[in-house]
Amino acid sequence: MNTPAENTGNPAAHAPGMPVIAVIGDGQLARMMQTEAIELGCSIRVLAGAPDSSAAQVCADVLIGDYTDIGDLRRAVDGADAVTFDHEHVPNEHLDALIAEGVNVQPQPSALIFAQDKLVMRKRLGEIGAPVPRFAAIDSVEDAAVFFDEVDGAVCLKARRGGYDGNGVWFPDSREGLGTLVEKLLSEGVPLMAEEKLSFTRELSAMVARTPSGEVRPWPVVESVQSGGICVEAIAPAPGMSDEQRERAEKLSVSVAEALGVTGVLAVELFEVDGEIFVNELAMRPHNTGHWTQEGSVTSQFEQHLRAVLDFPLGSTETLAPVTVMANVLGADKEPEMSVTGRCVEVWRRFPEAKIHLYGKGYRPGRKLGHVNVVGSDVEQTRKTAAAAAHFLMHGEWDDNYLNKKEH
Amino acid sequence: MNTPAENTGNPAAHAPGMPVIAVIGDGQLARMMQTEAIELGCSIRVLAGAPDSSAAQVCADVLIGDYTDIGDLRRAVDGADAVTFDHEHVPNEHLDALIAEGVNVQPQPSALIFAQDKLVMRKRLGEIGAPVPRFAAIDSVEDAAVFFDEVDGAVCLKARRGGYDGNGVWFPDSREGLGTLVEKLLSEGVPLMAEEKLSFTRELSAMVARTPSGEVRPWPVVESVQSGGICVEAIAPAPGMSDEQRERAEKLSVSVAEALGVTGVLAVELFEVDGEIFVNELAMRPHNTGHWTQEGSVTSQFEQHLRAVLDFPLGSTETLAPVTVMANVLGADKEPEMSVTGRCVEVWRRFPEAKIHLYGKGYRPGRKLGHVNVVGSDVEQTRKTAAAAAHFLMHGEWDDNYLNKKEH
Ligand SMILES: Nc1ncnc2c1ncn2[C@@H]1O[C@H](COP(=O)(O)OP(=O)(O)O)[C@@H](O)[C@H]1O
Ligand SMILES: Nc1ncnc2c1ncn2[C@@H]1O[C@H](COP(=O)(O)OP(=O)(O)O)[C@@H](O)[C@H]1O
Ligand SMILES: [Mg+2]
Ligand SMILES: [Mg+2]
């Protein structure tokens, strides 16, 4: 802490009369907000950890600092019309302090807490009648044993805070395994909760944006395919849903946004079990399952997020194609010998319709390096194209059976 | 000249392993290239006249300098994988010098000359059999008088170089008027040409991208509506053309790109006269009549331009909607009292489907401040929405008859 911020702030980066949004965090979400800010004529000041981070690379007003340091936060938000986030990890006490000083923070910590703490989220969603798996606080090995029996051993243990991409989620398959894990994690000081492990048909994501004034617009619900806890694919709209099911999921996302006072973009991750839906978790920012909107929706989630946090009217969330598929580009175990531009060239040569989005990051196993969006009319064909393109970008070789091999 | 460049060059702005494109010029075209560079993971270094110019505002690697100064140009292109342009005004002798030094300039001066000098362009197009209006070099009042008679007084006088938005185009209505004008302009050292003033039905624009390797992809031909020499609206695809007419215009743009060795995006401005087409002029960069591609085409002209100058495979130019309309936002004589954000809010409240693009420029009469894109299915409805939105952004008041009042 107390890292002195290296302020490379640049007043020339901000257009006359147009709002400035301070974005805390320097990842690909902040980067893609900049893409949309440019077109809106707004501008972004990024609080970044490093000058060559994904977002800092592409912004003209970058402040290098630490998002857990109130001094750095104060410098980053100075003069901004709104403050928003690339991630959920800014300490809420700092946000409360900024709000007390008159800073316009969106979403507010009173909403953010439900994206930060999975137990607090589960309790609140239960209160508002949103469908959630059975769950319990786990403060001891005994709590764990009791819950294990309650759910007949179908248990999912979760770190309450700080998890991402499946880190912080465990599926112990015995009471003993659960006990050992709980004991270890509690002794490390990790606050825990458990929930019923659902045998879901698939995962869905219902995304919505809401403004401080209360305007709300959902996008169509999408199917999201995870592999090892990481989102690898999103299909928009989710195939095979009845109108009634779609509407139910969209209404759920709207009611969660309203009940929790969310502003900006909200992603409601869902499990589909025999046509019923249960909420998994919430994200209060643009989300991996919303990247398809860049090509597939009139208003992308990044533009909508900026408009929402500025309390501007929201844009149309109509789709531009019968189907849009997003496939993530993740670092493989071994970096391909072919250069990244060489891989792009091969992909584009074969698929002129593949929209490659890269985040400016160095190759590292498991790292989210980019994504590919493809719009189309046939679901399976579009999925195949997106998957084959993403696979080539990851591995430097074609594997057209990639889609069939993915865990579902 | 010899202005020392203030190099704010920022190595951290460039992603590992990804190409750097040096863009000469700091206007909205360079700005919108940055939007696409971010998503491609490439990066842009801008040679800008001022740190708060349209493009400099949004780029992380900005060099302040003078594009007519070879020293500034050298610094701007240092280490870049390709060099391209926001405008046509870089002296060709400097570009030749850079090429001799091994710099990858795209498009090359051997092609650029046809976008810089309207007489050279007319001659070359005539040679390759492209349909052009009758024309003549005007080096004296006598030349002008001879040509006036040749075209029965239907004369259009043009400055050979440096014209834009109708500056540098005159329609004298008498032989005397023409003579006086020619005398004045020649005495001021303005090189001139004249061509037949065509009574066109409408103006069209055929856009295409071409790579150094020779891949070519046209977009659908659009109708472009000018008012006072400035493009105010583009309708994509151009309504009411037969398949055969479309194909002829697209083929023409392809053959011009190939014959002239154009690389990057080429706009071929056309006049439609009784179903026949004639070439007006050429632009070798993204063009106002191609802004619709940001929302209406799988690949926008800005992404395509970057891919083309890097000799990457080109993207699909399929449309995403039955019709996309672009309406320009130009500064009116008087700046509205309502703030620019206030105007955006009103437009979005009424038209959630209106995509507003702003260039970060201060308000000035006649200045291109931004544009609005609207995708739709009904041509007249979509035109009305785009026009009403643009009108409000310009004037701060509604005028739904705006479209009908425009000169056609
Ligand atoms: N209760 C559950 N039942 C079955 N699978 C689950 C459950 N909770 C999480 N998962 C699986 O683990 C993934 C990651 O869990 P999640 O709580 O979303 O953590 P993260 O914060 O890492 O995204 C989910 O997308 C899902 O595939
Ligand atoms: N030969 C012509 N006949 C009729 N109108 C013309 C002719 N040439 C130009 N114009 C009109 O003037 C506008 C501007 O001319 P152009 O040569 O394109 O100049 P600029 O470089 O300013 O765009 C055209 O878009 C068209 O409306
Ligand atoms: Mg999750
Ligand atoms: Mg013109």
UniProtKB/TrEMBL annotation, chains A, B:
EC number, UniProt record: 6.3.4.18
Binding of ATP, residues: K118, K158, E195, E196, K197, L198, E203, N280, E281
InterPro entries reported for this sequence: ATP-grasp, ATP-grasp_carboxylate-amine, ATP_grasp_subdomain_1, PreATP-grasp_dom_sf, PurK, PurK_C, PurT/PurK_preATP-grasp, Rudment_hybrid_motif
Originating organism: Corynebacterium doosanense CAU 212 = DSM 45436
Family per record: Belongs to the PurK/PurT family.
Pathway note: Purine metabolism; IMP biosynthesis via de novo pathway; 5-amino-1-(5-phospho-D-ribosyl)imidazole-4-carboxylate from 5-amino-1-(5-phospho-D-ribosyl)imidazole (N5-CAIR route): step 1/2
PANTHER family: PHOSPHORIBOSYLAMINOIMIDAZOLE CARBOXYLASE, PURINE BIOSYNTHESIS PROTEIN 6/7, PUR6/7
Protein task: Catalyzes the ATP-dependent conversion of 5-aminoimidazole ribonucleotide (AIR) and HCO(3)(-) to N5-carboxyaminoimidazole ribonucleotide (N5-CAIR).
Positions of the ATP-grasp domain: 122-310
Reactions catalysed, as given in the entry: 5-amino-1-(5-phospho-beta-D-ribosyl)imidazole + hydrogencarbonate + ATP = 5-carboxyamino-1-(5-phospho-D-ribosyl)imidazole + ADP + phosphate + 2 H(+)
Keywords assigned by UniProt, alphabetized: ATP-binding, Ligase, Nucleotide-binding, Purine biosynthesis
GO molecular function, one term: ATP binding
Top-level class of the enzyme under EC nomenclature: ligase
GO cellular component: cytosol
GO annotation (BP), single: 'de novo' IMP biosynthetic process
This protein's name: N5-carboxyaminoimidazole ribonucleotide synthase
Keyword Phosphoprotein on entry: no
Quaternary state and interactors: Homodimer.
